[in-house]
Amino acid sequence: MEPLPGLDDLADAFLAMSTRDEAKRFLRDLCTLPELEAMTHRWQIARLVERELPYLEIAERVPTSTATVTRVAQWVRHGSGGYRLALDRTRRGGQ
Questions:
Q1: What is the pLDDT of residue 67?
Q2: Does residue 38 share a domain with residue 6?
Q3: Cβ neighbours around 19 below 10 Å, total
Q4: Is 49 found in the same domain as 74?
Q5: Residue whose C-alpha is closest to residue 64's, from 81, 86, 49, 51
Q6: What are the helix and strand counts (H, E) for the chain?
Q7: Which of 54, 78, 56, 77 is nearest to 66 (CA)?
Q8: Rounded to an integer, what distance in angstroms lies between the CA atom of residue 76 and that of residue 46?
Q9: Are residues 25 and 41 in the same domain?
Q10: Is residue 3 predicted with pLDDT exceeding 90?
Q11: What does the CA dihedral 61, 66, 71, 74 come to, rounded to 10 degrees?
C-alpha cells in the first residue's frame, strides 16, 4: 500500500488515546457526523459479515445498501488485514 502522507501521524494520534472516552472524543472532533456514521456503519457491517449473516439481512439491520455490505465484506476478506485484526482483538476482549 502506498503511504498516505500524514497517515502515520494520524495512527499515532489514535494510539495516544488511553480510554474509549478519549477515542470517542478524538473521533468526534476529527470527523463530521456523516463521516462518523459511515465509519460506524462499516464497523457494524464488518461484525455482521464475520457472523456470516446474509448480506440483505445486514443491509436491513445497519441500514445500508447491499453494495456497501459487499464492499466491506471484500475488505474484511481480502483487505490489508486491519478489519481481521480488529475483529479478532475485540472478540477476545469479550464481545
A1: 97
A2: no
A3: 8
A4: yes
A5: 49
A6: 6, 0
A7: 56
A8: 7
A9: no
A10: no
A11: 80
